[in-house]
Write a structure and sequence with these properties.
Elements: H1 2-24, E1 33-34, H2 37-46, E2 50-56, H3 61-77, E3 81-87, H4 92-98, E4 105-110, E5 113-114, H5 119-122, H6 128-137, E6 144-145, H7 149-159, E7 161-167, H8 173-185, E8 190-195, H9 197-206, E9 214-219, E10 223-226, H10 234-244, E11 250-251, H11 257-262, E12 267-272, H12 277-291, E13 298-303, H13 304-307, H14 310-317
Parallel strand pairs: 1-3, 2-3, 6-8, 7-8, 11-13, 12-13
Antiparallel strand pairs: 2-4, 4-5, 7-9, 9-10
Helix pairs in contact: 3-6, 8-10
Protein name: Thioredoxin domain-containing protein
Pfam family, one: Thioredoxin
Membrane topology: Single-pass membrane protein
Length: 318
């Protein structure tokens, strides 16, 4: 009887703690929203925010593994991104509409439309920092209108690299091709444009470009590469970005591995450990200075601990 009394007392104690946390506001509320298919459709058609959606099933192990990741992403972005879960078992019509064929399936939506070019890439991200970085790239405009060289310099300093289009207006065929390329490649590199003749000419003079229209890759340390192909030929412009659209010194990891792997150039690796941030920062100036003279060499930093992880070892075998 005594042990039974202790069990009842323990349960009551736990209930008291739970009630205290709930009513004191200390309980942690989930930030991921679970919606019915119709509720999601209503939100999708009206929301101007980025929507990260997971189709799941309760008995799916990988879906369960994603739960804390999605909560972490929702926590990081707050009201800037809405993270949604939909039970795939009750969403047959929506599954067909969105071509959801298994769980988990993650999709991104913006302004009521799926960002289809993100569908394939987003499925493999199973860590908060990596998924957050991917989502963040889709929070900025596909192409940013820049007003001054100083503004562009700040973008280059923050991003490491910017693809810049200089055009006479925002509606000609060159601008349209540039926008199409940006829609596909934005997840890898930032795009900016100047779409007014006088301002574009001013930028061209600053970067020693002979004429407008033009497309440039601008990197740190005043590295500027000009595309010399046909500005209306999308495949040529994509080849240019695929070859030269890398920062002077990149960061090797899940988000960048396949791009560097498929770039047909020599590679220089700068290995470091997590506690060598100060030494790495000091070394970067010298490495960037060297990298600025070698457009067709891939320079990258590699976290030694990450390189030894199971995930990276699997990537090495691909």
């Amino acid at each position: 009887m005594a042990s039974g009394t202790r069990r009842r007392g323990g349960a009551a104690g736990l209930l008291s703690v739970a009630l205290f946390l709930a009513f004191s506001g200390l309980a942690v509320a989930k930030k991921v929203v679970e919606l019915s298919p119709q509720a999601f459709i209503n939100m999708r058609d009206k929301s101007k925010k980025l929507l990260l959606v997971e189709f799941y099933s309760p008995d799916c192990y990988h879906c369960q593994q994603l739960d804390p990741v999605l909560e972490g992403v929702a926590e990081k972005f707050g009201n800037k991104v809405t993270v949604i879960k939909i039970d795939s078992r009750s969403a047959h019509d929506l599954n067909r509409e969105l071509k959801v064929r298994g769980t988990p399936t993650m999709l991104l939506f913006k302004d009521g439309q799926e960002i289809t070019e993100a569908r394939e890439d987003i499925q493999g991200y199973r860590h908060v920092d990596v998924l957050s970085a991917f989502v963040e790239k889709h929070m900025v405009p596909e192409v940013t209108d820049v007003k001054s060289v100083d503004q562009l310099d700040r973008m280059v300093e923050a991003e490491g690299i910017v693809v810049l289009g200089l055009f006479h207006n925002a509606t000609d065929k060159y601008t349209q091709t540039f926008a199409e390329v940006a829609s596909k490649w934005r997840r890898y590199v930032r795009f900016a444009r100047v779409a007014e003749t006088n301002r574009a000419t001013s930028f061209a003079e600053a970067y020693e470009v002979d004429e407008v229209p033009a497309v440039l890759i601008v990197k740190k340390r005043d590295v500027v590469l000009q595309f010399d192909g046909q500005l209306t030929k999308r495949s040529d412009l994509e080849d240019f970005i695929n070859m030269y659209g890398f920062p002077l010194v990149g960061k090797w990891g899940v988000l960048t591995y396949y791009r560097y792997k498929n770039r047909p150039t020599p590679r220089v690796y700068l290995f470091h450990t997590a506690n060598q941030a100060h030494e790495l920062e000091n070394a970067m100036d010298a490495v960037e200075e060297v990298a600025a003279d070698f457009d067709e060499v891939s320079f990258m930093t590699v976290n030694h601990e990450a390189a030894e992880s199971d995930k990276i070892r699997v990537m090495h075998k691909v």
